[in-house]
Structures are given as structure tokens and as C-alpha cells.
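User: Could you go from structure to sequence for me? I need the amino acid at each position, not a summary. C-alpha cells:
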């Protein structure tokens, strides 16, 4: 599938100077660690959809292997197998494993965090607390919302391992030190929302209870299923409390993350508009681990549960899922015109996506004077009707207008201006996620 708008941002960052990546994150909603990794990856595997997305595919696979071996070591071989199966077929995880975005790397780091936190509990030494502090930093350096995990780690330590509290605080201080060392002033301003450059995500609304239910239905199969799994695992752990081990004790930590991170995120999202399902995608492995463990404990009933889960997952699997926008077809269509018409991309945000498919060499020079080069090809971008008016259109016989994220109010102004200048318009529905209008003057 062609790249999406979000993906082209990742692709573009592989072309800038390595040292400038962290400054890109000063306006983006994501920190730079994923972009650092992808920058290196692109130098080996190239800019193609397969080359760039193979990064996510690889780290998604590494997560399965890493957590599989972890579960085999601390639980049993069967739990590891069941976990791997339900992880592989999870529709949302599979979808993000096919995208040039940070989520597969984030979940891989979560798998390392699980192992490091468990090692910290089992062997509370300096090496393990340093590693835990480092991994927690990398989580936040990949996605800000991953910071939700840290207070729940601390809460778990207070409830179950009070003797580790001081070292857990030290691990937290290591994370904070690394954050202060690597985050720029503008990043801190972006996080707390005081910078004038902060992008106002007006499409994100304050969370409602239905948003929380949607998360549970999408990520945990269904909210009813989630509650049944949660109550069942708590019942089993309570029943076996006299023979509890460190390995089984860690299940309470998995429950904390799977249950309370989404709940906390929802409560905060009800106050300020930040609630998006994918932001807390990293809780899914925790839920799948406790689900796999429950399956092994239910014996024959567990196999029925496994079949139900797999049936649900396979039913909802979608391969080659559309990214919602297809500028590959737009660029291909534009190239077919022998006499190059004037092309307008509205909005500017997707111009680079168009350039990638229209002229890859021009895209590679994107950090230089690409807009001037683009204009030389008779291609312009504009956000508003006023900006379209400022383009020299009077002598143009044919104009192709491609629009995404457009508004009806601006559309009225645009159409009125073309009409005043004696253009006739024909609207076409040729491209997914892109509104196309052909303007022609006799």
C-alpha cells in the first residue's frame, strides 16, 4: 500500500541530518528515538515501502521471540506458545507492524521493560536498576505516553517489594537524568503545552466512556471479555496465594498495566483531549500475557477460550489494509498528462507525500529548495483559497486540484474564485482519501 500522511513524516526524517532529528521532534507529537533508529535502517534498506516498513515488521517479530523466551523461562513452554499465537494474530498489532510508525519499536521496548523490571525484582542490584532506568527512558524517548508505566511500577514495588523502593526511586532518577540530558527546552514546552508552536489537535476530543469501551473492544477483544479475563485471573491468583512465586507475583504487575493504564489515560483524557487508542497500544502485551496464562490454567476450557480468541482475531484480520489516502495514484495520474497542467495540492501537509510518488529524486532533496523545484514543475501547494488566488493561474488552461483535510467554507471560496475567472469544473472520485477537481478554461 502507498504511504500514509503519518508515514511520510517518518520517511522524510530519514533524509535530514542525523543531528537535526531531535529538533524535528520539537514540533512533532513524538520524541525522536524511533526516527534515530529508522534513519539508520533506511541507509541499509532504502526508502521503499517494503524497506521502511520492514523495520516495524522486524521489531514486531522480535517482540514475539523476546516475550516467548521470557514466558518459557519464568512460566512454562505452553504459556509461551499460547501467548505467541494470540499475539501473532492480534489484528491491531499486525496492522501497526505494517506501518512506518513508532509502535512496533515501542512494544519491543515494552517487552524489554517487562524483562528488566522482573530482573530488578529478582536481583535488586545496581546493574539491574541502571538498566531499568535506561529502558524506561527509551520508552519515553520513543513515545511520551509510555511514561504512564513508571508510576505503576513504583506502585507495584510499594505493594509487593517494599525493600526495593529506594532502588526503584534511584532507577526513576536515572530516567529523569537522561530525560533532562536529551530533551530540549522546546520538547518540554511541547509536552506541557505552553509553546506557541504546539500543534492544536482540534480533531482530538475529550474522552467519553464510550472511548474507553472502544479501546477495550479493539485492543482486548471486548470489554466483557476483558472483565471476565480480569476476574478469572484474580480468582486464580487468590486461590494460589499460598504457593505464590516471584514469577506469579509479576502477574499482578501485568494486571496493573493492562487495567489501570487505560483507565488512568481515560480519566486524564476526559479532562484534556489526548485519548487515542493507539497511544496506549503498549498495554496489549500485558493483557495477552495474563490471557495466555489463564488459558493454561483452565485446561480443556482454556482450549475453548483459545479457539474463541483466535476466531475473533482471524475474523478481524485485514491484510494490505488501506492507509486511507492514496497519493501514489494521484501522482501516477498527473504524470499521464503530456502537456503538464498546473497542479495544486491543498493542503500543504500532504505535499511531501505527493512529491515522493511524483519525483523521488526531488523528494530526496526535500531539505534543500524543494518548493522552488516543485513550482518549476508547475506544481504548487496551498492551505487556503487566498493562497490559491496568489498562484499565477490566469494563463493556465487546465488545473488539477487535489484536496485532503479540506473544509466546506474554503471550498466555496475556491470554487467561486475559479468561476469568476471563467473556469468550468468537473469533480471526480478517482483516488481514495483525496478529493479531485479538474478545472478547465475554454
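Assistant: Here is the amino acid at each position, in order:
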Amino acid at each position: 500500500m502507498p504511504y500514509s500522511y503519518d508515514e511520510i513524516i517518518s520517511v522524510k526524517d530519514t533524509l535530514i541530518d542525523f543531528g537535526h532529528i531531535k529538533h524535528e521532534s520539537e514540533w512533532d507529537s513524538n520524541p525522536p528515538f524511533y526516527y534515530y533508529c529508522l534513519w539508520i535502517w533506511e541507509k541499509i534498506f532504502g526508502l521503499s515501502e517494503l524497506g521502511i516498513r520492514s523495520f516495524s515488521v522486524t521489531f514486531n517479530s522480535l517482540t514475539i521471540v523476546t516475550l516467548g523466551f521470557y514466558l518459557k523461562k519464568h512460566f512454562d513452554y505452553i504459556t509461551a506458545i499460547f501467548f505467541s499465537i494470540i499475539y501473532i494474530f492480534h489484528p491491531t498489532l499486525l496492522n501497526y507492524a505494517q506501518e512506518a510508525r513508532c509502535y512496533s519499536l515501542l512494544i519491543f521496548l515494552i517487552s524489554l521493560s517487562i524483562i528488566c523490571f522482573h530482573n530488578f525484582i529478582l536481583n535488586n542490584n545496581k546493574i539491574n536498576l541502571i538498566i531499568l532506568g535506561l529502558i524506561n527512558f527509551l520508552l519515553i524517548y520513543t513515545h511520551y505516553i509510555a511514561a504512564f508505566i513508571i508510576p505503576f511500577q513504583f506502585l507495584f514495588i510499594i505493594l509487593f517489594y517494599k525493600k526495593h523502593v529506594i532502588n526503584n526511586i534511584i532507577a526513576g532518577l536515572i530516567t529523569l537524568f537522561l530525560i533532562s540530558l536529551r530533551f530540549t527546552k522546546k520538547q518540554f514546552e511541547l509536552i506541557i503545552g505552553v509553546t506557541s508552536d504546539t500543534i492544536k489537535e482540534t480533531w482530538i476530543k475529550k474522552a467519553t466512556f464510550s472511548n474507553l469501551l472502544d479501546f477495550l473492544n479493539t485492543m482486548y477483544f471486548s470489554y466483557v471479555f476483558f472483565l471476565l479475563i480480569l476476574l478469572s485471573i484474580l480468582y486464580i491468583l487468590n486461590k494460589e496465594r499460598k504457593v505464590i512465586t516471584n514469577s506469579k507475583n509479576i502477574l499482578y504487575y501485568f494486571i496493573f498495566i493492562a487495567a489501570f493504564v487505560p483507565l488512568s489515560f481515560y480519566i486524564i483524557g476526559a479532562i484534556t483531549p489526548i485519548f487515542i487508542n493507539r497511544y496506549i497500544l503498549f498495554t496489549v502485551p500485558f493483557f495477552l500475557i495474563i490471557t495466555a496464562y489463564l488459558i493454561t490454567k483452565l485446561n480443556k476450557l482454556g482450549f475453548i477460550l483459545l479457539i474463541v480468541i483466535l476466531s475473533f482475531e482471524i475474523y478481524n484480520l485485514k491484510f494490505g489494509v488501506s492507509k486511507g489516502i492514496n497519493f501514489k495514484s494521484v501522482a501516477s495520474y498527473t504524470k499521464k498528462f503530456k502537456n503538464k497542467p498546473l497542479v495544486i495540492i491543498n493542503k500543504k501537509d500532504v505535499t511531501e507525500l505527493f512529491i515522493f510518488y511524483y519525483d523521488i529524486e526531488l523528494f530526496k532533496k526535500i531539505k534543500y529548495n524543494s518548493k522552488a523545484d516543485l513550482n518549476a514543475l508547475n506544481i504548487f501547494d496551498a492551505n487556503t483559497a487566498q493562497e490559491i488566488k496568489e498562484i499565477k493561474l490566469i494563463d493556465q488552461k487546465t488545473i488539477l486540484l487535489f484536496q485532503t483535510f479540506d473544509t466546506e467554507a474554503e471550498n466555496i471560496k475556491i470554487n467561486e474564485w475559479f468561476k469568476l475567472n471563467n473556469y468550468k469544473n468537473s469533480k471526480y472520485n478517482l483516488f481514495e482519501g483525496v478529493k479531485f477537481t479538474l478545472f478547465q478554461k475554454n
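One structural detail worth keeping in mind: Residues 194-200 have pLDDT under 50 and may be disordered.
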